[in-house]
Amino acid sequence: MKLKHSILGLLLLFTLIPLGIFGIFSIYETNRKIDELTEQNVRAISENQVMNIKNFTQDRNNEMDMIASYQLTQNAILYSLRENESPLARNYVDNLLKERKKYSIFVASISVVNRNFHVVSSSEEYESGTVSAMKDVDPKYQTGEFIIGDVYERITDDGRKNVVPAYTGVYYNNELIGYVMEELDTAYFDDLRLNMDTLADGTFYLLDGNGAIITAGDTKNKRSLKTFVSKSSDRNDFQKKWDAIDHEKNPSGYVRYRYHRQDYITYYSDVENTGWGIRVTENLSAQKQTGRTYGVLIALGLSALIIGVFCTQYFMTKKIFAPITHILQVFAQIRESEDYSLRVHIQEKHETGELAAGINELLDYVEQADRKEKERQQKLLQMAENDPLTGIKNKKAIEKEMLSMVQRAVESHEQITFGFVDIDDFRDYNTNYGHQEGDAVIQFVAQTLKENIHGAVGRIGGDEFAFCYAGELEPERIRHNADKILEILRTQHVNEQTGEVLPVPCSIGIVMSQGDTLDYTQLIRKADLAMYQAKENGKNTFVLNVD
Which positions, given as ranges, span the membrane (predicted)? Predict the structure, then answer.
């Protein structure tokens, strides 16, 4: 019996030691891979939020640049500086800013000031000549470059709000003549934080250049935290490692540290065009709870039958390591292909399945954000190329299209047709019927040209249009089409207020040229001359020149 017991003891000893080593190794690998997945998750959240805020700042930059580029804005500033002889009613610019604010719910106010910091116009009530507080801000905000400042609290027309200011310059003949300023409601950034449903036991901080909190908390904190979760005296390990980083050389990265005997990781990043910083913190020890659970299972297996150990090993390999490997493979595929439609196909009902579901939710969010970003870029492209009143190409876009068309036609020896259209006596519509009818006439002409000209059509000025077409066309067909357009313009525009048919006579100049004889500047000049010749011929007609 003693020998049997000894043999049994030796068998158990030599079986349990390698199994124990295996169990320890399994726990280590599980914790390591969970750490790796958690770090990737937090990194993805941090990078995604940086991208969201970067897109937001770029949107604000584009919007403010658009306001700064308006002739109306520049004239208002020049008039306030007495550098423009033509007075301009302030309420035009005020109404423009109020409309902009109305469609940007996170904008608390929009203002325009001149270079002497006198308020020129605002979406809020103000007194003429008021000196803006911008006069006393840090000079780095007064360079004219787009920048977003630090958070502060102010009573706005919509009540007390925490806001951050954004500044950009207004230029006239390359001279800084004033600024466009926005105050952005920090509630927008609270919404960003609340939509980060992939944070497990973590906290998101968005800090301004002074380290003040813009928004902080997790998805359960409906209101932003006002202070850090922990006291500075409790964050010695974090602070020591944070201070050791050269933040100028490393504007983004991560810090691993311990706090109250728990392991944490914080990803950080600076935000362009601001002094802000993003921090996403996750409790790694909380994520390791799954690994500790499996450690208990392995310990119970080691104290039971050997077969239980092998069953546990088989279970861990199939249910844990294989899914984790699959998850890592999916991450690798996404990293290589940038295809955010890929998903983790794990249907398990335990923690690995929940982890897979959480990752898939993150991928859903990233895919949606990526799609929205592409749609936003497409809309920005359309806004940059289209005339806002008519929807056809603007001056810059049609000129670019015409030049490109000439270059292609030269290479392929194609025929090209250029045309200019000018509404005859357009000022009479504004004088007799008001500017609203003038806009309606411009829209009618643009739509008529777009529907009846096989080529590119654009608006190059107030009542002037251009069109171009590359390809063989008979002059007779061009004449027929021009007659048709003039007939439509004369007979089919109806004044919506009076119901009467208002003729819209136009003068059209057209030039046709062929292949290697093309010269862009000459074509533009000839088409322009043809249009003026049409006016000299009595208006409401066209002149076609064929080279």
Answer: 7-28, 294-316
